[in-house]
Amino acid sequence: MQSLVCDQPRHLTYRDDPMPQPKQGEVLLRVTHVGICGTDLHAFEGNQPYFSYPRILGHELAAVVEDNSGSINFANGEAVTIMPYFSCGLCIACRKGKTNCCVSMQVFGVHIDGGMREYITVSETALIKSGGLNGEQLALIEPLAIGAHGIRVAAVQENETVLIIGAGPIGLGTMMMAKLNGAKVLAMDVSDSRLAFAIQHGYVDEIIHPSHKNVLEEIRELTNGDMPDVVIDCTGNKEAINLGFSFISHGGRYVLIGLQKEEIVFSHPEFHKRESTLMSSRNATRQDFDQVIDAILNKQIDVMSMISHRTRFSDVRREFSSWHDPANGVIKAMVEF
Questions:
Q1: How many Å is the maximal CA-CA distance in the chain?
Q2: Which is nearest to 305 in space by CA: 161, 203, 229?
Q3: Which of 158, 162, 268, 281 could crosslink 183 through cysteines, CB 3.0-4.6 Å?
Q4: From CA 53, how far away is CA 110, in angstroms rounded?
Q5: How do beta strands 79-82 and 85-86 pair?
Q6: CA triplet 213, 216, 220: central angle to 5 degrees?
Q7: How far, in Å, CA of 219 to CA of 298, rounded?
Q8: How far apart, in Å, are the Cα atoms of 72 and each of 27, 68, 79?
Q9: Using 50, 70 and 90 to split pLDDT, how confident is the model at 325?
Q10: 213 three-class SS
């Protein structure tokens, strides 16, 4: 069985590994598709928190059940995706139903080896039925669930104005889910092509490029002086996160989906006088996965438009570094086995 290993920053190696053997309660899966996430790209570059090397990347998966001897709910040959956040079930977060931020969280492809290999074993409890979705759609559910969770954390209401900073795959998914909630959505990014993509596909109502004009003035104009009810960062960029505090309306909420390694810096008086709320949004729950699947099945969101690059597993090592280059216009790269 072949695996693709990130041995150290900016270096990938194909490796022959033994076929994994499912333990009690586990299912053997044959991987069919893997979506490339910003987490994978940051790990490749060496700036991903919670990460150590060597590591097999990949947590946005579609697979087929190969051996269901550890399952009573899934048949051999059945298409599935997985919830790649493996929680303990016992800690304070898990007892509250917040398995997405388990004290002992093990994220597939981050804390433990992930899915960039031909076969994997996972607990039956992590499996999610396809609902009739194809392999590429299944591999897109996880990043969209991240966005769905962020919108749920922010408690976005109909007719609220939501500013989403970052128009990468997670940001685009968050925009889709905000629109689904009936919000007016503003998108900010330094990439003209990504902003054009977002407006072209109807993910947003207005786009903002921070280098084109005074951003604060533009946001005030677009919100009739109110500023956004909700600001969501999907960049994981320190400067963008710190700047985002200045965009919150009085009584507004700021949600950090993006993650970076350093300290957040903001003006306490400005934050305090607005009675702002700051929240983080980590991973997703089964509720979020179910919402995304229903939205795809009901044709409320167009997920296939996100895939800009496709490649075979055998070519990933050669092409991976190019996906980090903005000049190549990557929205979502999809690997097929």
A1: 61
A2: 203
A3: 162
A4: 10
A5: unpaired
A6: 110
A7: 33
A8: 10, 8, 15
A9: confident
A10: coil
- Contact criterion met (CB below 8 Å) for 150 and 255: yes
* DSSP helix/strand/coil, 272: helix
- Identify the burial level of 57 via C-beta atoms within 10 angstroms of its C-beta, where 0-12 means exposed, 13-18 middle and 19 or more buried: buried
Give the residue among 13, 39, 36, 57 at the shortest CA–CA distance from 309: 36
Run of H or E including 332: strand 332-336
Tens digit of each residue's pLDDT (9 = 90 or more) over 54-96: 999 999 999 999 999 988 899 999 999 999 999 999 999 999 9
Q: In this structure, are residues 34 and 120 in contact, taking their beta carbons and an 8 Å threshold?
A: no
Please give the Cα distance from 285 to 298 (Å, whole number): 20
Q: Among all chains, which residue has been given the structure tokens 């990949």?
A: 58
Rounded to two decimals, what is the model's pTM?
0.94
Length of the chain in terms of residues written: 337
Which helix (H) or strand (E) segment holds residue 94: the answer is helix 92-95
CA distance 204 to 104: 36
Measured distance between the N- and C-terminal CA atoms of the chain, rounded to whole angstroms: 12
What single string gives the DSSP state of each residue in 110-128? Answer: TTB--S-BSEEEEEGGGEE
Reading the block at residue 313, the tokens are: 């597993």
CA atoms within 13 A on the CB side of 13: 9
Collapsing DSSP to helix, strand or coil, 212 comes out as: coil
Q: What is the mean pLDDT of the chain?
A: 95
| CA geometry: angle 38, 238, 248, nearest 5 deg | 105
Whether omega before 20 lies within 30 degrees of 0, making that bond cis, reads: no
Identify the residue whose tokens are 């909630």: 181
CA 109, chain centre distance (Å)? 13
Q: Give the whole-angstrom CA distance, residue 70 versus residue 273.
A: 56
Token pair for 294: 């229903």
Cα dihedral value 208, 211, 213, 217, nearest 10: 60
Task: Return the amino acid letter for 162.
Answer: V
What are the residue ranges of helices labelled H in the chain? Answer: 38-45, 92-95, 135-154, 169-180, 192-200, 215-222, 238-244, 268-273, 286-297, 316-319
Q: Classify 140 as helix, strand or coil.
A: helix
